Amino acid sequence: MGTLRNTQSLAEEQIHDVLRNERRRAVLTHLQRTIGSVSLRELSVSIAEGESGESPPPTDLRESVYNSLHQTHLPKLDREGIVVYDKDRKTVTLDESAREVDIYMEVVSPYGITWASFYRALATIGLVVLLSAELEFPVFVRLDPVFLITVMLLAVAVSTSYQLWNRRWFVLWALTD
């Protein structure tokens, strides 16, 4: 293995099977937050820290995670074309098919709501505040509508930047295609 490869689209059943396991989801989440290859050791420590809530994680848990990733989870993700697992070098890299899986993983933000719900709420709040200013409600009558629009657009820009930063490996791949 060891090189990125183009594979056919993954079936929805394959994606659900991959995401059914917590450690495989943790592998994908860790790889999405990094650029390039990650060592199996780094990956196992990160996942063990997440499972135990301790840093450094207990040795027995780290070894258990290491072995399960090496023997089961990474070979499965490699066979599905989601990651490239180099068993000799013990390195893992996201493959292009990971984009298909990401759609199923990114439904909920780290704060427990979908990004679509977040942006819908942000737009609704902005419209209510702007309408309240235009209808001269007591608190809002003192605020300039241009200022309110600027604040809401700034909130959208900051949110979008945060979301893009968390998904930067997708953006980088899109730029290299």
From TrEMBL:
Annotated TM spans: 113-133, 145-165
A matching Pfam family: DUF7344
Keywords noted in UniProt: Membrane, Transmembrane, Transmembrane helix
Ranges for domain DUF7344: 16-93
Listed name of the protein: DUF7344 domain-containing protein
Lineage, uppermost ranks: Archaea, Methanobacteriati, Methanobacteriota, Stenosarchaea group, Halobacteria
